[in-house]
Amino acid sequence: MRKPVKFGRLSLLLLFIMMAALLTGCGQDIMVFDPKGPIAKDQRDLIVIAMVLCGIILVPVLALTAVIVWRYRDKKGNKSSYKPNWSHSTIMETIWWGIPIVVIVILGAVTIKYTYALEPSKPIASEQKPIVVQATSLDWKWLFTYPEQGIATVNYLQIPEGVPIKFELTSDAPMNSFWIPQLGGQMYTMSGMAMTLYLQADEVGKYFGTAANFSGEHFTDMRFDVHATSREEFDKWADGVKKTGKELTAEGYEELAKPGRSGEHFYSSFPDGLFQKIVTKYSVGGSHGAHKASGE
User: Fold this and answer.
1) So what CATH class is 131-286?
2) Cα distances (angstroms) measured from residue 17 to each of 3, 11, 24, 173
3) How far from 154 is each of 136, 233, 262, CA to CA, in Å?
4) Per-domain boundaries in the chain
5) What is the pTM of this model?
6) What value, to the nearest 5°, has the Cα angle with vertex 230 and ends 178 and 136?
7) Is-contact 134 144, C-beta < 8 A?
8) CB 208 within 8 A of CB 40
9) Which residues form the Cytochrome oxidase subunit II copper A binding domain (predicted)?
10) Apex CA 278: angle with CA 188 and CA 181, to 5°?
Protein backbone atom coordinates (compact mmCIF):
# COMPACT_ATOMS: atom_id res chain seq x y z
CA MET A 1 0.00 0.00 0.00
CA ARG A 2 2.94 2.35 0.53
CA LYS A 3 4.33 2.12 -3.04
CA PRO A 4 1.33 3.79 -4.77
CA VAL A 5 1.51 6.66 -2.27
CA LYS A 6 5.23 7.18 -2.88
CA PHE A 7 4.71 6.94 -6.64
CA GLY A 8 1.93 9.53 -6.47
CA ARG A 9 4.11 11.95 -4.50
CA LEU A 10 6.99 11.48 -6.93
CA SER A 11 4.69 12.11 -9.90
CA LEU A 12 3.40 15.35 -8.35
CA LEU A 13 6.96 16.49 -7.61
CA LEU A 14 8.06 15.84 -11.20
CA LEU A 15 4.96 17.63 -12.51
CA PHE A 16 5.75 20.74 -10.46
CA ILE A 17 9.41 20.68 -11.59
CA MET A 18 8.38 20.42 -15.25
CA MET A 19 5.88 23.27 -14.89
CA ALA A 20 8.48 25.49 -13.23
CA ALA A 21 11.02 24.72 -15.97
CA LEU A 22 8.53 25.52 -18.72
CA LEU A 23 7.46 28.77 -17.09
CA THR A 24 11.08 29.80 -16.56
CA GLY A 25 11.96 29.14 -20.19
CA CYS A 26 8.95 30.99 -21.59
CA GLY A 27 9.14 33.97 -19.31
CA GLN A 28 12.05 35.60 -21.12
CA ASP A 29 10.26 35.50 -24.46
CA ILE A 30 6.98 37.11 -23.42
CA MET A 31 7.13 40.26 -25.53
CA VAL A 32 4.21 42.00 -23.85
CA PHE A 33 6.41 42.38 -20.76
CA ASP A 34 9.09 44.14 -22.81
CA PRO A 35 7.12 47.14 -24.17
CA LYS A 36 8.70 49.63 -26.57
CA GLY A 37 5.88 52.17 -26.83
CA PRO A 38 3.52 54.17 -24.58
CA ILE A 39 0.45 52.03 -25.33
CA ALA A 40 2.27 48.76 -24.66
CA LYS A 41 3.76 50.16 -21.44
CA ASP A 42 0.33 51.07 -20.05
CA GLN A 43 -1.02 47.67 -21.07
CA ARG A 44 1.95 45.97 -19.37
CA ASP A 45 1.27 47.97 -16.20
CA LEU A 46 -2.39 46.93 -16.22
CA ILE A 47 -1.43 43.26 -16.63
CA VAL A 48 1.09 43.46 -13.77
CA ILE A 49 -1.38 45.23 -11.45
CA ALA A 50 -4.04 42.62 -12.22
CA MET A 51 -1.57 39.79 -11.59
CA VAL A 52 -0.50 41.26 -8.24
CA LEU A 53 -4.10 41.80 -7.11
CA CYS A 54 -5.10 38.28 -8.15
CA GLY A 55 -1.98 36.94 -6.42
CA ILE A 56 -3.15 38.49 -3.13
CA ILE A 57 -6.01 35.98 -3.23
CA LEU A 58 -4.50 33.09 -5.18
CA VAL A 59 -1.17 32.69 -3.37
CA PRO A 60 -2.59 32.44 0.19
CA VAL A 61 -5.34 30.07 -1.00
CA LEU A 62 -2.84 27.73 -2.66
CA ALA A 63 -0.49 27.94 0.32
CA LEU A 64 -3.28 27.18 2.79
CA THR A 65 -4.49 24.31 0.62
CA ALA A 66 -1.03 22.73 0.76
CA VAL A 67 -0.77 23.30 4.53
CA ILE A 68 -4.21 21.82 5.20
CA VAL A 69 -3.59 18.77 3.00
CA TRP A 70 -0.26 18.14 4.72
CA ARG A 71 -1.36 18.84 8.29
CA TYR A 72 -4.59 16.89 8.20
CA ARG A 73 -3.41 13.98 6.05
CA ASP A 74 -4.27 10.47 7.09
CA LYS A 75 -1.27 9.60 9.21
CA LYS A 76 -0.82 7.30 12.15
CA GLY A 77 -0.54 9.29 15.34
CA ASN A 78 -1.72 12.57 13.78
CA LYS A 79 -2.50 14.88 16.72
CA SER A 80 -3.98 17.77 14.71
CA SER A 81 -7.10 19.35 16.17
CA TYR A 82 -10.30 17.61 15.04
CA LYS A 83 -13.60 19.53 15.39
CA PRO A 84 -16.36 17.73 13.49
CA ASN A 85 -19.09 20.07 14.80
CA TRP A 86 -17.32 23.35 13.96
CA SER A 87 -19.41 25.47 11.57
CA HIS A 88 -18.69 29.21 11.82
CA SER A 89 -16.04 31.83 12.53
CA THR A 90 -16.86 35.52 12.17
CA ILE A 91 -13.19 36.45 11.84
CA MET A 92 -12.54 33.91 9.06
CA GLU A 93 -15.75 34.86 7.22
CA THR A 94 -14.69 38.50 7.32
CA ILE A 95 -11.25 37.62 5.93
CA TRP A 96 -12.29 35.34 3.07
CA TRP A 97 -15.14 37.61 1.97
CA GLY A 98 -13.66 41.00 2.81
CA ILE A 99 -10.30 40.68 1.08
CA PRO A 100 -11.73 39.46 -2.30
CA ILE A 101 -14.34 42.24 -2.27
CA VAL A 102 -11.68 44.90 -1.66
CA VAL A 103 -9.46 43.40 -4.38
CA ILE A 104 -12.34 43.31 -6.88
CA VAL A 105 -13.22 46.95 -6.16
CA ILE A 106 -9.60 48.04 -6.66
CA LEU A 107 -9.21 45.91 -9.80
CA GLY A 108 -12.46 47.32 -11.22
CA ALA A 109 -11.38 50.92 -10.61
CA VAL A 110 -7.94 50.34 -12.15
CA THR A 111 -9.43 48.54 -15.17
CA ILE A 112 -11.92 51.35 -15.82
CA LYS A 113 -9.12 53.94 -15.69
CA TYR A 114 -6.84 52.05 -18.10
CA THR A 115 -9.69 51.07 -20.41
CA TYR A 116 -10.57 54.72 -20.96
CA ALA A 117 -6.92 55.77 -21.32
CA LEU A 118 -6.19 52.96 -23.81
CA GLU A 119 -9.22 53.41 -26.08
CA PRO A 120 -7.69 52.36 -29.46
CA SER A 121 -8.90 55.33 -31.53
CA LYS A 122 -7.74 57.88 -28.95
CA PRO A 123 -4.78 59.86 -30.41
CA ILE A 124 -1.46 59.64 -28.59
CA ALA A 125 -0.39 62.95 -27.05
CA SER A 126 2.63 64.11 -29.03
CA GLU A 127 4.15 67.16 -30.68
CA GLN A 128 4.71 65.03 -33.77
CA LYS A 129 2.00 64.78 -36.43
CA PRO A 130 0.70 61.19 -36.72
CA ILE A 131 1.55 59.18 -39.83
CA VAL A 132 -1.32 57.24 -41.39
CA VAL A 133 -0.76 53.59 -42.29
CA GLN A 134 -3.63 51.56 -43.74
CA ALA A 135 -3.37 47.85 -42.97
CA THR A 136 -5.46 45.31 -44.88
CA SER A 137 -5.49 41.63 -43.93
CA LEU A 138 -5.62 39.26 -46.90
CA ASP A 139 -5.36 35.49 -47.33
CA TRP A 140 -2.58 35.01 -46.08
CA LYS A 141 -0.62 38.25 -46.08
CA TRP A 142 -0.71 41.87 -44.92
CA LEU A 143 -0.96 44.85 -47.27
CA PHE A 144 0.22 48.19 -45.89
CA THR A 145 -0.55 51.38 -47.78
CA TYR A 146 0.95 54.75 -46.86
CA PRO A 147 -1.47 57.36 -48.30
CA GLU A 148 0.75 60.32 -47.34
CA GLN A 149 3.86 58.79 -48.92
CA GLY A 150 2.00 57.18 -51.83
CA ILE A 151 3.69 53.80 -51.38
CA ALA A 152 2.63 50.30 -50.34
CA THR A 153 4.27 47.20 -48.92
CA VAL A 154 3.38 43.57 -48.31
CA ASN A 155 4.46 41.83 -45.09
CA TYR A 156 6.83 44.68 -44.24
CA LEU A 157 6.23 47.74 -42.08
CA GLN A 158 8.57 50.65 -41.45
CA ILE A 159 7.74 53.52 -39.12
CA PRO A 160 9.66 56.43 -37.53
CA GLU A 161 10.38 56.14 -33.82
CA GLY A 162 8.82 58.68 -31.49
CA VAL A 163 6.02 59.46 -33.98
CA PRO A 164 2.40 58.33 -33.41
CA ILE A 165 1.12 55.98 -36.09
CA LYS A 166 -2.55 56.06 -36.95
CA PHE A 167 -3.37 52.58 -38.21
CA GLU A 168 -6.56 52.22 -40.22
CA LEU A 169 -7.48 48.55 -40.30
CA THR A 170 -9.74 46.51 -42.53
CA SER A 171 -9.94 43.11 -44.19
CA ASP A 172 -10.52 41.77 -47.68
CA ALA A 173 -10.61 38.21 -46.38
CA PRO A 174 -11.93 36.42 -43.27
CA MET A 175 -11.78 38.41 -40.05
CA ASN A 176 -8.30 38.65 -38.59
CA SER A 177 -6.40 40.49 -35.88
CA PHE A 178 -3.53 42.97 -36.20
CA TRP A 179 -0.95 42.69 -33.41
CA ILE A 180 2.49 44.14 -32.65
CA PRO A 181 3.03 42.85 -29.08
CA GLN A 182 5.79 45.26 -28.07
CA LEU A 183 3.85 48.31 -29.30
CA GLY A 184 0.31 47.52 -28.19
CA GLY A 185 -2.59 45.11 -28.03
CA GLN A 186 -4.37 43.53 -30.94
CA MET A 187 -7.20 45.01 -33.00
CA TYR A 188 -9.55 43.00 -35.19
CA THR A 189 -9.78 43.59 -38.93
CA MET A 190 -13.19 42.96 -40.53
CA SER A 191 -14.66 43.27 -44.00
CA GLY A 192 -16.82 46.34 -44.43
CA MET A 193 -15.30 48.09 -41.43
CA ALA A 194 -12.37 50.45 -40.90
CA MET A 195 -11.02 50.40 -37.36
CA THR A 196 -8.57 52.91 -35.93
CA LEU A 197 -5.60 52.04 -33.74
CA TYR A 198 -2.91 54.44 -32.53
CA LEU A 199 0.52 53.01 -31.70
CA GLN A 200 4.00 54.43 -31.28
CA ALA A 201 7.53 53.03 -31.08
CA ASP A 202 9.71 54.86 -28.56
CA GLU A 203 12.92 53.08 -29.55
CA VAL A 204 14.68 52.25 -32.79
CA GLY A 205 14.50 48.52 -33.38
CA LYS A 206 12.95 45.58 -35.15
CA TYR A 207 9.66 44.33 -33.75
CA PHE A 208 7.51 41.29 -34.35
CA GLY A 209 4.12 41.73 -36.02
CA THR A 210 1.56 39.04 -36.67
CA ALA A 211 -2.03 38.04 -37.28
CA ALA A 212 -3.48 36.91 -33.96
CA ASN A 213 -6.55 35.11 -35.31
CA PHE A 214 -7.11 31.73 -36.95
CA SER A 215 -8.01 32.45 -40.57
CA GLY A 216 -7.28 29.35 -42.58
CA GLU A 217 -4.55 27.03 -43.72
CA HIS A 218 -1.60 29.45 -43.82
CA PHE A 219 -2.56 31.93 -41.09
CA THR A 220 0.79 31.24 -39.38
CA ASP A 221 2.55 32.85 -42.36
CA MET A 222 0.84 36.18 -41.71
CA ARG A 223 3.84 37.64 -39.92
CA PHE A 224 5.71 40.81 -40.67
CA ASP A 225 8.70 42.73 -39.39
CA VAL A 226 8.21 46.22 -38.01
CA HIS A 227 11.28 48.41 -38.45
CA ALA A 228 11.31 51.50 -36.24
CA THR A 229 13.96 53.93 -37.48
CA SER A 230 14.80 57.61 -37.16
CA ARG A 231 12.54 60.02 -39.06
CA GLU A 232 15.36 60.75 -41.49
CA GLU A 233 15.86 57.05 -42.26
CA PHE A 234 12.11 56.56 -42.64
CA ASP A 235 11.83 59.42 -45.13
CA LYS A 236 14.85 58.08 -47.02
CA TRP A 237 13.33 54.60 -47.14
CA ALA A 238 9.97 55.93 -48.37
CA ASP A 239 11.71 57.94 -51.10
CA GLY A 240 13.66 54.83 -52.10
CA VAL A 241 10.50 52.74 -52.41
CA LYS A 242 8.91 55.54 -54.42
CA LYS A 243 11.79 55.49 -56.89
CA THR A 244 12.58 51.79 -57.13
CA GLY A 245 9.36 49.95 -56.27
CA LYS A 246 6.96 48.62 -58.84
CA GLU A 247 3.44 49.97 -59.36
CA LEU A 248 0.52 48.22 -57.66
CA THR A 249 -2.30 48.35 -60.20
CA ALA A 250 -5.95 47.45 -59.67
CA GLU A 251 -5.32 44.19 -61.50
CA GLY A 252 -2.22 43.60 -59.41
CA TYR A 253 -4.22 44.05 -56.23
CA GLU A 254 -6.87 41.57 -57.37
CA GLU A 255 -4.12 39.04 -57.94
CA LEU A 256 -2.53 39.84 -54.58
CA ALA A 257 -5.87 39.43 -52.79
CA LYS A 258 -6.24 35.82 -53.95
CA PRO A 259 -5.57 33.22 -51.22
CA GLY A 260 -1.90 32.36 -51.04
CA ARG A 261 1.33 33.00 -49.16
CA SER A 262 3.59 35.91 -50.03
CA GLY A 263 7.00 37.32 -49.26
CA GLU A 264 7.88 40.99 -48.85
CA HIS A 265 6.97 43.34 -51.69
CA PHE A 266 7.35 47.09 -52.19
CA TYR A 267 5.22 49.29 -54.43
CA SER A 268 5.93 52.81 -55.63
CA SER A 269 2.21 53.57 -56.00
CA PHE A 270 -1.24 52.09 -55.57
CA PRO A 271 -4.73 52.90 -56.95
CA ASP A 272 -6.34 56.05 -55.56
CA GLY A 273 -8.86 55.29 -52.82
CA LEU A 274 -7.86 51.62 -52.67
CA PHE A 275 -8.38 51.32 -48.92
CA GLN A 276 -11.84 52.88 -48.99
CA LYS A 277 -12.81 50.69 -51.95
CA ILE A 278 -11.82 47.64 -49.93
CA VAL A 279 -13.86 48.83 -46.95
CA THR A 280 -16.99 49.44 -49.03
CA LYS A 281 -16.49 46.46 -51.33
CA TYR A 282 -19.39 44.45 -49.95
CA SER A 283 -21.80 47.31 -49.22
CA VAL A 284 -24.77 48.23 -51.41
CA GLY A 285 -23.53 50.49 -54.19
CA GLY A 286 -20.01 50.21 -52.84
CA SER A 287 -20.27 53.34 -50.71
CA HIS A 288 -22.76 52.75 -47.89
CA GLY A 289 -23.03 50.66 -44.77
CA ALA A 290 -19.36 50.75 -43.80
CA HIS A 291 -17.98 51.91 -40.47
CA LYS A 292 -15.33 54.43 -41.44
CA ALA A 293 -12.19 55.07 -39.49
CA SER A 294 -12.44 57.99 -37.10
CA GLY A 295 -11.48 61.26 -38.69
CA GLU A 296 -12.59 60.22 -42.20
Assistant:
1) mainly beta
2) 21, 10, 11, 44
3) 10, 19, 8
4) 30-69+91-118, 131-286
5) 0.81
6) 20
7) yes
8) no
9) 128-240
10) 25
